[in-house]
Specification:
This protein is α+β, with helices and mostly antiparallel strands and about 170 residues long. Helix content is about 25%, strand content about 35%. Strand 4 and strand 5 form a beta hairpin. The N and C termini lie far apart (about 50 Å).
Amino acid sequence: MEWTGARYADKPTVEVATWINAPLERVWTLVSDVSLMPAMSEELQSVTWLDGATEPAVGARFVGRSRHEAYGEWETTSHVIEYEPPRVFAWAVQDPAHPSAVWRYRFAPKDGGTELSQWMQMGPGRSGLSFAIDAMPEKEQKIVFVRMREFERNIAVTLEHIKKLAEA
């Protein structure tokens, strides 16, 4: 049986959404404080703003340090590419013109609370996953599929943490 699915070059995406029983401004404040994110993630270990920045703005940069059982430890520089309070917050990982990933939060008032979605796109720039694909090109689609399911699970966990904090 041949594995079918997305390849890395297809720039696969995943999105998870949740409804939060809290005002949009509260949810926005939590999500736009990237220093809170490591406490909500198994992979992301720390975040540090660069170039004197202390909060998001288009063009601001931050370093994220991550760890994964299969991929080891790594560090990436992210560039804020969209920042429209309180609607959208997004960043590109590594080279904003050819990112290894793009992450985006979208916020909308809904039913007296907030609809929050987190979306991510893998690629097209090289990432740690590229080394696994280089080593096993015949398994590329399976590698991409497994990593995208990991992202989906991790995003759901992050959103649940945000929901709990916002509703507390």
